[in-house]
What does this fold into?
Amino acid sequence: MSDAILRVEGLAKEYRVRVGGRRGVLHAVDGVSFDIQRGETVALVGESGSGKSTTALCILRLEEPTRGRVLFDGEDLTAQNVRGLRPLRRRIQIVFQDPTESLNPRRSVEATLREPVEKHGLATGRAAQARVAELLELVGLTPDHARRYPHQLSGGQRQRVCIARSLATEPSLLVLDEPTSALDVSVQAQILNLLNDLQREIGLTYLFITHDLGVVRHLADRVLVMYAGQIVEEAPTATLFEKPLHPYTRALLDSVPVDSPAERRVRTVPKGEPYSPLDPPQGCRFAGRCPWAAAECEAPLELATADAEHLVRCTGWFSGRVPEPRSEALAS
Amino acid sequence: MTAEPLLEVRGLATWFETPRGTAKVLDGLDLEIGRGEILGLVGESGSGKSVTAYSIARLVRPPGRVVGGEVRLEGRDLLALSEKQMRRVRGKEISMIFQDPRGFLDPVARVGSVLQEIYRTHEGGSRREAKTRALELLRAVGLPAPERVYRAYPHELSGGMAQRAMIALALACSPKLLIADEPTTALDVTIQIQIVRLLASLRDRFGLTILLITHNLSVVAEVCDRVAVMYAGEIVETAPAHEIFSQPRHPYTVGLLGARPRISAVEERLSDIRGRVADLHDLPTGCRFHPRCFLGDERCRLEAPTLRRLDAAHESRCHYAEQLGEDAA
Amino acid sequence: MLDAALPPIREERPLVVGWRRLRRNRVTLAGLVIVVLVGLCAIFAPLIAPYPPMQGNPAETLQPPSLSHLFGTDSIGFDVFSRVLYGARIDLLIAFGAVAIALVVGCAIGAVSGFLGRVVDEVVMRVMDMLSAFPSFILALGVVAALGPSLPNLILAIAFVNVPVYARLLRARVLTVREAQYVRAATALGLSRRRVLFVHVLPNSLAPIFVQSTLQAGYAILEAAGLSFLGLGVRVPKPEWGVMINMGLQYIVSGQWWITFFPGTAIALTVMGFNLIGDGLQDVLDPRRR
It folds into this structure.
């Protein structure tokens, strides 16, 4: 509570859209609140329409939130104007999903890495060049890579450059939006190992956005599960995987394919599809797909404490309708 | 496999003309799929797995060209057919589904009309018969409101529904072989598992043979009977699914298995395969994988291993396959 | 472990690669050769031309092409060949001048409009729409008529008419590039808006501008020739190609075809040269293509 490097309060992002001739409001992010402690890795998990990426963008004000507050190291990011934001951007950085799209195709790696260093007044000339070499080494590349252009690098190398760029200003918080989804499996492993190492070496705090539960299990200290713009469950990683409470979390875990044919998983697969929250109902947004749905689910509900550090947004859990999670669900 | 394989590929060679020269993406590939089995063709980008699929269906476009080999479907060599004859094979005997279902459906045609068209092209019959069949198919692929999907346009369908619709299209004429090119990669996790299980049920209920192309070993673990692992245009290991996972006999397979972050266990470090995927224009001497291999030695650099049979159903392209057999995954 | 393997170093700075690719494309090369030749004619006209362009010899009027007069002479006794050479100066000056002005002004308008968006964008684009509603020739005609016929006014008129083309083109590109992930990344890095615009958005938006410019150069010559032909641009008897066609028009019927043929061919050739270059530039300017 005391050493929260990031505090998000009631963050919301609404889009006015027209779908099939009808006008409505898309509640992409709807009242999201959470903290991140210094040095933690927090994972924001969800499928399409969950609002996880939009949340990340709003935190960085790359999208303007409709409502809510974001406190970074005590300073209110949401209250800043464009000029005030710039020095703050030094300390909170983001790595995007597609490394190819994230790099200016006309700029060499050297130019791309120097830019933040020079523009934030951290070093110039020879010193800046040295810093570039330092950054490259940090991410497992060589100074030789500096002369290259993005199209001459592999996907994994490009993502390393993006990570290096995000580290150039010595941020304290790094937001990673599906940083390995666009990469091959073997490269993904390299990048995940790198991120792990970096966190230990430099002491970074991570907010990890992903849909891959394996990655969550591997890297995250705490997990926030999002569905239709809201956080539906929040718990430390081990707890979430051993005792998932929310029906959606259970379905999500069940849906992960097995690790080997020898494993057989018992599943409750929800019917229907994840949907985007266009004019969502007052009550639970998962009720339409939940095997335990009942009339009480139509009432408005909040994220509430189920156990130590374990929060869940589910009427049925507190009323006893939703049973205990199967403990053998994830035995390997 | 007791009976004759449904599909037999021998010496398949597909080359691509690029400004940097001729890339021999496939250069003598052998593959077999038994009747009613799901074969998983696994590889990362640049492995040639998609090119293999397209070559089998003869959908390779310039600058690519199938330059040699045989693709025998029930004994009949598809590469020897004329384009006109091949068109009758596609849709009727071999069908294909792709990664992005909405990208492959005609945006201005309703799903139902496309289904009808496919059916009537190959089987003839009246519109009414075709419609009945279409609704049957849509139901068979698990769509809850077949009538609505029948009348819908592709953009009105969600990703999962569109993929089911595409599977229905592929099944319209009861093909013998379904080629699925990364059918779940673009889908959410909860939908992915539904599609994967749908494919399994199609095998169980209708004896459908499926060539499943994917980079996701976990998907393979879910439904595949047999697995073939590809690297840099070659098959490096083939085995029944449970054996690949419990007893991988090629360093690349070992690496791939170890590189997955799994939800059931927490490792300190993921095993990563160093280096990057081989450049087809600039292949290493000897074994194509040796620069990245944790086992490789001088022999691997000088002598390219062949795909050899280790026991009844397990093949590996590695000089040291037997040594690997001693470790478990 | 290091992800170290790198392909061998090949020269990869975008402009150098582009130049190499340009050399390989024969069609574009042909265009380049033509334009360079015309350019050389223009620059070295005083050295190459056998006769001064404005010196008429009354004794040698309406002579067909011969060794002493390669392209023949016209009704005043001007040597057509010399005038074609000097005409290149005027027409190329108009082409480059008008395009340059239109490009700078149009791009500035388009970039600002596209980058700032919303109200500014709406207003500016509607003004551009109004201008483009006029057929370009008529509009140029109007401007020259208002300003008075002279070479500088001609250039201004043609530039004015072409501003909306560039504005619209650049704005469209800017709108697209603005949404690119690397632009977003630049913003996330805390770079100033000005820097994002000039370093990241603009360089990636300019490719279609260069292609368009070569086409515009061709049009500019046609417009200039047309206006001069009508007497509204460069006036008789200056050696501009359109003027020359005007002067020779009445003689086509009586059989002195060369007076209009050669300047006409010069126009056609030059415009074609520009078009051919434009065809190849698109490929050349994209750094991602291998």
